[in-house]
Every structure is written in structure tokens, then in C-alpha cells.
Design brief:
This protein is mainly beta and 264 residues long. Helices cover 10% and strands 43% of the residues.
Length: 264
Amino acid sequence: MKKFGLFLVTYLLLTGLVFGQDIPVQRVVFPELTTQVDLSTTDVNRFVCPGPIKDVMFSQDKGIKIKITGENAFVKFQAMKKGQQILYSKTPSEFYVVCDGDVYSMIGLPKKIPAQTIRLSSGLKKKIKKNLSLFAGLPLEKKVLRLIRQAYTDDLPESYTVRHLEQQKDVFRQIRLISRRDILVEGEGLGLREYVAELKTGEKPRTLAEKDFLQRSLTKKPLAIAIEEPQLKPGEKTRVFIVERRDPAEQGNPLVIKKGEEGS
């Protein structure tokens, strides 16, 4: 652990995991709103509830099978065989999931994509209560480290709010930087921004430093920065995690820099 100015800056050399594997996008659905979700027509999909799933209502005549196990419901579109050809469903279907006392309404759009995980969010009040319980009694430093590790391993509680992004940030001349996702821990006043940094072709090998990312266009209230692998060769990528304070009253996507703030 080391200090940089007034900020607590962490540097973690995370080893044993392979960078470059895509993080699966997990769709979050809220109660009492009808939400369209993409589902795999070939593989088993999963609905995840913050509490027990009591029931799932759906059109059984559309060739769908569902198995409920505790906080999970597994959804499979049945394929039909016509001669030597296998026909997969293309028909949208409605799903009404009774989860932890709330009803979640979805229109499932079957597509030829990998298995999907749909997380059923328990709403803001329950999310805040859950987040407070997850961090109860921990000092700030341990809260920060826990959040970084959760983001790195993609072991994020359902109570976090996650925005998936693919936005290029034109900050460095030698480094191509992409904002990958934004994670908000409501109730704790903490957030994490995850970036992917790639050393451009033709550049000399470079060692990244945490202080390189202390720029207002990337973070406004930083608490900690962690770089997966600081030493890069041309074409190599690494992940950068920035933990920061979040104002509970902040509206909109914090990764979108307002007009007039560029370079400030």
C-alpha cells in the first residue's frame, strides 16, 4: 500500500488469472416493469433472484421448459427436429417471475447466442440494505480492496448497479483506453470504473503507473487505483480499476463527461 497526494492509491499485482477473457454481460431486470431480454434459443438460460423464486408463469404451448431451484430458474427453449435439420425457436415469449415477493415481467427474445444470466433486482431500498450489510464493520481500506477484487473476478453481488460500456477515452497518446463498465455500490457512496488499456502498435514497451490515471476526465473523487499488469508491450492489454467516492445525488452516467469538463 502506498500514498499518492491526498488519495489512497492501491497497486495490486493480480496473478493467476488470464486477462482477455470476455466478461459475460448480465442483464438486470427490475420489478413491475416489462423488460425485453435476449435469451439463448440453443442453451439453458438462468434467472437469478435475490430471494426464493415462488413461481414462473409462461406460455407452455411455445415449447419452453423451466425448472425452479431455490433462487434460480432455468429456462430452455425446446428445439424441433425436421428430417436431419434442427429448428430452434424464434418466437418471443412472456415470462412473469414471482421473486422474493415481487413480480418481474419480461419478454424473452430467443436468439442464437450463448446462455444468458438475467438478474432480478430487488429495487433500490433492498439494494442499499444489502450493500450496507456486505460492508458492515469494514474500514474504508478493506471496502476498497473488496470492491476491486469483486470487479476483477467478476464476483459482483446482485445489489450492485452495473453499467456495461464500450467507450473510447482519448486521454493518452501511446495508450488506447476503453471504458468497459461502471459499478455503483448504492448506500456506501462507492463506485468503480473499469478500463481496458492497450499499448498501441509501434510504441516502445511501457510501464503504467497509478498516477497516470489520476485525471479529471477519468475520475473526479478517486480513492484507489489498481492495475492488473503495469508492464505492457505493443498490442498488449491490461485492466485498470479506479475506486472513487460517489455522490448519492449524482444523476446519469458518471462516465459521460459534460460539456466544458474535457481536460479539466
